[in-house]
């Protein structure tokens, strides 16, 4: 009988696509992000996925000083695994996005598997009052925005991660990203086993239903075999975050929650913290008899180098 592995819960704390005007509970400053990381860890998250923001304006930033302050404060508070974003935010160059890897050599970082349309523009009609002047412009410009991850970008990103012993988390938004990942594996640019996050529900990517998840997971199994990958799922928005999470739990996969992906803990009820979302995912897992992995267990499962080998 197949024995389910312990469940790794990742918490994406703030992101770059969630607008502060959507929720007053979005962490912005280094202190706020670090506090949210600690609360998520206490609630059961083994990994936190980190973006940073300008502490005054709330805008996503590539400022390495803000990165350093945020990462250091998280590490001082708890031994959670830190997965650094290389997705960045709209308008950031590939060089700015990858700069965190050689600078900080985290245990993990995200690695987006291809270029795509990435639309948030429907939000412009739903938000009536904007907290910061940049938000509406960012949301509206996404109608003509391509999230650029060319093969040239992928080559540089993969080499940088390999050179600095950072585990890539392969972000797969649709089947083309999966096949791009397969190319990187075949050409020796990605080492096996890979760790995959299926990101479902972004406007421009695959839908957030069990059908897309099962198709991507089946295709991954066909490409790589059962021993050459671990996987997790991100459901964008409510209720996809929890419904897809439950499906992944029953399939032996892992799950990501957090205010980067979804701001509601119940229908029309804003989550007051990332920890509330982690707690709900943990409760679902407990109903399904999936034990929760600690950070050290996640490190072992994903073959990470350890928190003592980072540069922050």
Q: What order do the strands of the largest sheet run in, or round the barrel if closed?
A: 1-2-3-4-7-8-9-10
Low-confidence runs (pLDDT<50, min 5 residues)?
A: none
What portion of residues is helical?
40-55%
> What is the chain-wise order of helices and strands?
EHEHEHHEEHHEHEHEHEHEEEHH
Query: Average pLDDT across residues?
Result: 97
Globally, the shape reads globular
Please state the CA-atom Rg, rounded to the nearest Å.
Answer: 18 Å
Number of helices: 12
- Residues in β-strands, percent: 15-25%
Question: How is the biggest beta sheet arranged?
Answer: 8 strands, parallel, barrel
Assembly category: single chain
Alpha carbon gap, first and last residue = 43 Å
The number of distinct β-strands equals: 12
Structural class: alpha/beta
What would the keywords be for this entry?
312 residues, alpha/beta, eight-stranded parallel beta barrel
What does this structure look like?
It contains twelve helices and twelve strands. It has 312 residues and is an alpha/beta fold. The model has no long low-confidence stretch (mean pLDDT 97). The N and C termini lie far apart (43 Å). The strands form three sheets. Strands 1-2-3-4-7-8-9-10 form an eight-stranded parallel barrel, surrounded by eight helices. The relative contact order is 0.19.
In short:
With 312 residues, the protein is an alpha/beta fold.
Layout: helices, strands, pairs:
Layout lengths: L8 E4 L17 H14 L3 E4 L13 H14 L3 E4 L9 H5 L1 H5 L3 E5 L3 E2 L5 H4 L6 H9 L4 E2 L3 H13 L3 E6 L2 H12 L7 E7 L9 H15 L4 E7 L4 H12 L2 E4 L6 E3 L2 E2 L3 H14 L7 H8 L10
């Amino acid at each position: 009988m197949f024995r389910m592995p312990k469940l790794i819960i990742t918490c994406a704390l703030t992101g770059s696509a969630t607008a502060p005007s959507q929720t007053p509970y979005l962490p912005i400053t280094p202190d706020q992000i670090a506090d949210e990381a600690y609360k998520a860890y206490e609630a059961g998250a083994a990994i936190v996925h980190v973006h940073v923001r300008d502490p005054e304006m709330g805008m996503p930033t590539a400022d390495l000083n803000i990165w350093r302050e945020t990462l250091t404060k998280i590490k001082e508070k708890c031994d959670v695994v830190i997965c650094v974003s290389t997705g960045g935010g709209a308008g950031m160059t590939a060089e700015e996005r990858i700069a965190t890897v050689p600078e900080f050599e985290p245990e993990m970082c995200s690695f987006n598997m291809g270029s795509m349309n990435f639309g948030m523009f429907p939000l412009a009609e739903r938000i009536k009052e904007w907290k910061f002047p940049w938000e509406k412009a960012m949301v509206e410009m996404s109608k003509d925005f391509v999230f650029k991850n060319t093969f040239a970008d992928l080559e540089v990103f993969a080499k940088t991660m390999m050179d600095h012993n950072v585990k890539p988390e392969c972000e797969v938004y649709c089947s083309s990203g999966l096949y791009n990942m397969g190319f990187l594996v075949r050409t020796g640019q990605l080492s096996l086993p890979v760790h995959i996050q299926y990101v479902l529900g972004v406007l421009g990517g695959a839908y957030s239903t069990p059908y897309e998840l099962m198709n991507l997971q089946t295709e991954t199994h066909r490409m790589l075999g059962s021993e050459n990958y671990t996987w997790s799922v991100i459901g964008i928005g409510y209720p996809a975050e929890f419904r897809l999470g439950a499906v992944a739990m029953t399939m032996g996969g892992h799950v990501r929650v957090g205010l980067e992906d979804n701001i509601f803990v119940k229908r029309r009820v804003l989550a007051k913290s990332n920890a509330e979302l982690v707690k709900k995912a943990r409760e679902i897992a407990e109903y399904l008899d999936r034990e929760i992995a600690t950070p050290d267990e996640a490190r072992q499962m994903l073959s990470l180098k350890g928190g003592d080998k980072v540069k922050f």
